[in-house]
Amino acid sequence: MSEKVTIIGSGPAGFTAAIYAARANLEPLVLEGFTAGGIPGGQLMTTTEVENYPGFPDGGISGPDLMDRFRRQAQEFGARSAQEDVTEVDLSRRPFRVRTSEQEVETHALIIATGATAKRLGVPREEKLWSRGMSACAICDGALPMFRKKVLLVIGGGDSAVEEATYLTKFAAKVYIVHRRDELRASKIMQKRALEHPKIEVLWDTVLVDVLGDDVLSGARLKNVKTGEERVVECGGVFYALGHIPNTGFLGGQIELDEKGYILVKPGRTRTSVEGVFACGDVIDKVYRQAITAAGTGCAAALDAERWLGEQGID
Ligand code: NDP
Predict the structure, then answer these.
(1) Would you state the pLDDT for residue 38?
(2) Would residue 280 show up in a list of annotated catalytic residues for this protein?
(3) Torsion region of 216: left, alpha or beta (phi above 0 gives left; psi -120 to 50 gives alpha)
(4) Are 164 and 245 contacting, i.e. CB atoms less than 8 angstroms apart?
(5) How far apart (Å, rounded) are the C-alpha atoms in residues 71 and 179?
(6) Which of 240, 264, 299 corresponds to the end of one domain?
(7) Would you call 137 a catalytic residue per the annotation?
(8) Ligand 1: residues within 6 Å at CB?
(9) Residue 91 and residue 133: Cα distance in Å, rounded?
């Protein structure tokens, strides 16, 4: 028996698609992933407080709690899910075939919501202090009380680094951009805004060696790569802005991707280059990357898949 629709991915995009598909009686199967994209549930699983997801006015909600609600809501309407990594897909024949670590699934429509993994440096105390002063998303976490009036570090030199540093100035006492070279990669206009900001200073030719702190982050050990000199900066937050890697390797080149590996869809739509395959969430979005935008495109993907299945006489 073929599935009507299979959803790969279990973040806000995947489970929103599952809620909509389940309510349309499509009985979706969600392949949540296990280790391939980090952990099941996507990037929110490593986020302590989510204060900007609408609907939670009294202090927000924790990332894992929010994802648990997404999953339960989808399951309530009949979505089934399995925590298995997808290893490969065969989109050359219909129904499509999806191979996981445990089984092979046949499916008429496929929704890809595998997200993107934020790059990390893997410094020695990173795992211990993650979400305790360390984050890979200043827009998501920067407004939390723990970062207010603190010295904050943003690591990276691209558009995300300068944009997030500028954003953090709303709350921080001071923001250092820590960049490994003597020149930013960010676009000139965004650089200018950051470089001229009185609260922002760039530490050129500098890398993060380690983070310091017991329960919460209290400092960072930095190294100047030209002089080899190391120093400790007291700070209340370290934000990685090192770029993201879209989780599209398992597609094996069967769907059109952009030069960075994100799935290409028509602007504002979720159809991919293969008919019957839809994509949503961070795997198509390198600009906004928010839980709410991922949920939005997840909804769109389910509606597009439902419509397409109807056109094929499968409902
Ligand atoms: P980028 O890949 O552009 O930048 C990543 C930055 O991290 C680079 O400066 C890079 O250094 C640095 N970096 C990477 N790995 C390491 C490492 N191991 N150690 C130290 N530094 C490291 O990612 P972004 O997220 O900034 O941007 C991604 C895309 O999204 C871009 O196309 C960007 O233009 C776009 N974007 C647009 C925005 C807007 O227009 N508002 C906002 C945010 C992103 P180096 O420069 O030396 O390689």
Answers:
(1) 65
(2) no
(3) beta
(4) no
(5) 39
(6) 240
(7) yes
(8) 119, 121, 156-161, 163, 180-181, 185, 207, 241-243, 286-287
(9) 42
Q: Are residues 113 and 220 in the same domain?
A: no
Task: Kindly list the distances between the CA atom of residue 250 and the CA atoms of 35, 90, 118, 142, in Å, as whole numbers in the listed order.
Answer: 13, 10, 18, 33
- For 144-179, the pLDDT digits (tens) are 999 999 999 999 999 999 999 999 999 999 999 999
**Containing structural domain, residue 301:** 3-117+244-311
Catalytic option among 137, 235, 280, 299: 137
The residue count of the chain comes to: 315
- Boundary (domain end) residue, out of 240, 262, 280: 240
Amino acid at 215: D
| Cα of 243 from ligand 1 centre, angstroms | 5
Range from 25-39, 75-89, 112-126 carrying the lowest mean pLDDT? 25-39
Same domain, 100 and 139: no
- Quick one: pLDDT band at residue 6, thresholds 50, 70, 90? very high
Q: What is the pLDDT of residues 79-113, one digit of tens each?
A: 999 999 999 999 999 999 999 989 999 999 999 99
The mean pLDDT of the chain is: 94
- CATH number of the domain at 76, please: 3.50.50.60
Shortest-distance atom of ligand 1 to CA 183: 46
User: To test ligand 1's pocket by mutation, which of 137, 159, 191 has the most ligand atoms within 8 angstroms of CB?
Assistant: 159
Query: 258 catalytic, yes or no?
Result: no
Q: Whose CA is nearest to atom 3 of ligand 1?
A: 158
pLDDT at position 46 is: 67
